[in-house]
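Hi P.,

Sorry for the delay on this. The queue was packed all week, but I finally got your sequence through. Input first:
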Amino acid sequence: MADMNVEKFLLACAMIALLALSLIHSPDVAAEQGCPEGFMPNPVGAPGQPQCIQGRMQIWGGDSGQDGGIRGYNNSWGAIAYDASMAKVGIAENEKNRRRAIKAAIAHCKSKGATDCKEVMNYANGCAAVVWGEHPGSGGGIDLHALSGETLSEAVDASMRQCASLSVQGTCKVFYSGCSSPIPY
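Then the structure:
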């Protein structure tokens, strides 16, 4: 009977050892969070931001001390400022944070002689477009439409649709379109 208990004990120890070894040597797994091929989860993760951005998630393991290339991404911010009384627009792209992007866009707007530049929008790890069209009943005034999107075409299309629905004869023109992509480190 004692030999039977020793065998059970040794068998249990062997099973625990195998389980521990399998956990130690299992490959790293990274959840893609449902992103399509060629995209990765957005590191910003903020409401209103794209959930997936262009790029590939890198999995880094071990401690070899060697530089493995891209280890991750820093957010990249853009902003748009506008002085409505002087119809001047300021743009900022690829800034390190939201505050810098807004400050740069306002400075760009003021560099054109504007005095009352205000932030219209800011965005991270995405694209934006500024579109204008003639404002109905304003005697030649303009409406400015600035929207963001995951891709440049999404931002331009959304801005054009919004502008066309509100402008005279639905004719609008793209003034600016650009992206602030995550910066690898």
